Amino acid sequence: MSLKRQLFLASLLMLLIPWAGLKFVLELDDALRQQALQQLQERGKRMANLAGDRLLGQPAITTPNALYASPAETPIKPDGHADDWPGYDEPDHLQPWQSAEPLPVPGAPYLRWQAASDGRHLFLLVQMQNQAMQLFQQNRPDQPHDRFELVLQPPVTDLQQPVPRQRWTLRTSAPGSVNAIREDRQQTPDYRVQGAWRDRGSGWQLELQMPQPARGSLLGFQVTQGGQESSVPGTGIEPPPPLVQRIPELERALADQLGDGQQVTVVEPAGWIVAHHRHPATGQGPDFDDLSPVQVLEKITLNALRALIRLYQPEPTPLGEATHRLITGGLPDNHLVRRNDGSVWLATEHDLFGGRSLVLEQSLDQLLTVSGSALGSVLARSLLIILALTLVLLGYASWLSWRIARLQRLVSASVDEDGRILSPVPSARTRDELGQLQQHFSQMVERLQSYNHYLESFSRRLSHELKTPVAVVRSSLENLAHNSSEQERQQYLERAAGATERLRRILNSMSEAARLEQSFDQADKEQFDLSEVVAQATAAYQQLDADHQIRYQIPEAECPLMGSPEMLVQMLDKLVDNARDFTPEGGTIEVSLQRHSDHYQLCVFNEGSQLPEHAGVDIFGAFVSQRQGQSEGHLGQGLLIVRLIADYHGGYVEARNTREGGIDGVSFRVIIPVYRPETGSTL
Questions:
Q1: Residue 431: exposed, middle, or buried by beta-carbon count in 10 A (0-12, 13-18, 19+)?
Q2: Contact at 8 Å (CB) between 489 and 483?
Q3: Nearest 5 degrees, angle CA 86-CA 92-CA 96?
Q4: Other C-beta atoms lying within 10 Å of the C-beta of residue 155
């Protein structure tokens, strides 16, 4: 699997954050619903007691046949046009119409009405459909005409005698304003009851205004045509139905008890709503046009949370809502209900005296707003961060893949199929792990290139070293076969023996390191003074080499060491021989031994040419030599033996270009740990 896919799968694991957030929101929503239900029940009990006190002494309405008067929030002018009635701009099916027949017969006369009250006056809006308007003719009163009859029965109290009914009749000889006639007062006009009658083509419309009846009154009407012969069902006048109105005092008292996103409804036994108030939800926030991109994402996330929560929530039960009526039929066990507008509420119902009930509801959107606004913001920002991190990781993975592929191409281009180094790998500009890897590849290719050059030169040197003694042996044998003189034959035999001895030395030199490693297993270590061994060996070098100036410095104190003095002398011989080869005639070779707190430092410095800055290979490796054009058999084993002997004594060797006493040269330093005789161990 590619690195890009691995990082992509790793970034997908961050999706566990919103999943865990969703699980938390669901659990939080359930806990909040239970807590909100308990609070609703406690608040509902208090509000039920308050409503019961306010309704004390008022008769309960048990009949479904009633005239309901909605509160008029704006002034109504009885001009017959009805453009100032509540809900006039709404679609027809959303307006609060009442009728005696819920399902009208197509083509048959159909009467519907609305009632409203502003506290001083009662307004009636009556529409007749599928029946043309028939006017009253003054000269022909017996002709069929439309007549509107209105009956009012004031409430009866214990302190007074029953109040007689009030009856009004309205008819018009032309569309327009109309006044009522008081039938119980000898057909006298009553200018308090007035309105306007308008022709609507296939029907008519009557808008009426009258003084506000007392609470508990009975009010009914009916429409007749041609006397009592033809009538259209209205509310009825024998007996008139009760007039049902909202109670402002009760609504104001209940409004003070509501919290954000709650609504309360008080209904009569027949379902008529006598009090209703809704407290708007808080935290609506700015308009959509004023939102920032992050806030838009938060809104989208919050809406998605609402949809998911509703998906996992129990199914709400629809409420039996009708015009100005609410029939609960008992709330479900989960207390979740759905209104006709699609909103979902958490509801509790509390019984009042006389069969009345109080329904208190809490908006689930408000609960989610409280619980999910902050969490929705967190989830929205988490999604945004996850998306950004995913893109960053994919981009980073693509960049890493490109760098790895580029490094692969560079390495492949530097080596051909036969293993030859074609070109070096360029150094990396970055300092991260891939940059270090490219740097290591570059160094490795350089070392391989140098090592390949060494192998090629080694084969040439080995061929050169073997060619001369082999040629001597071959020519000696050929001359030996063609000469009969004993003296000449002896001369050729000596030349062949000398060449053979040279071949033996070359072969011994090639296997010297292997024999040395085998001798390590059989060698016995002994305690000796390193300074004395170095002093004796250096003194011998001075006597045997008159072409160079060999100087040495050793400490006055003893330098005890546990090891093999013969091997250390052999190591020093290799270092001094190597120094002679690179030191010009008359040059200086310095041998020094220094004692430090935890190690000895044996240093051999030679004047002359320096090591190349980038040798490419380890000069202490097998068959490695920096000599060029040497005639003797230097096969690169000397410094390898030096490294092996240093390793045997627990130390190491290093070489570097240096300048001592104003002279440039090369310094080989052997670091050997100090031996403690009192403890029998090295540091």
A1: exposed
A2: yes
A3: 45
A4: 17
Q: Tell me which residue of 219, 18, 230 sits closest to 111, measured CA to CA.
A: 230
Please list the residues that pair with 209 across neighbouring strands. Answer: 123, 194
Distance of alpha carbon 129 from alpha carbon 101, whole angstroms: 13
Does residue 309 have a pLDDT over 70?
no
Q: Say which residues have a Cβ less than 8 Å from residue 302's Cβ, sequence separation at least 6.
A: 368, 369, 372, 373, 376, 380
Look up residue 415 and give its DSSP letter.
Answer: B
Residues with Cβ within 8 Å of 54's Cβ and at least 6 positions away in sequence, in order, are 247, 249, 250, 253
**Two tokens, residue 375:** 């969490």
d(CA 250, CA 509): 119
Residues 264 and 248 sit within 8 Å (Cβ to Cβ): no
CB atoms within 10 A of CB 137: 12
pTM above 0.70, yes or no: no
> E strands, 236-281, where?
243-245, 262-267, 273-278
Give the tens place of pLDDT for each residue, 260-292: 889 999 999 999 999 999 988 765 555 556 667
Half-sphere exposure of 98 (CA within 13 A, CB side): 24
3-state helix, strand, coil in the chain (%, to 5): 40, 25, 35
Do residues 66 and 272 make contact, with C-beta atoms less than 8 angstroms apart?
yes
Query: How far apart are alpha carbons 5 and 9 in whole angstroms?
Result: 6
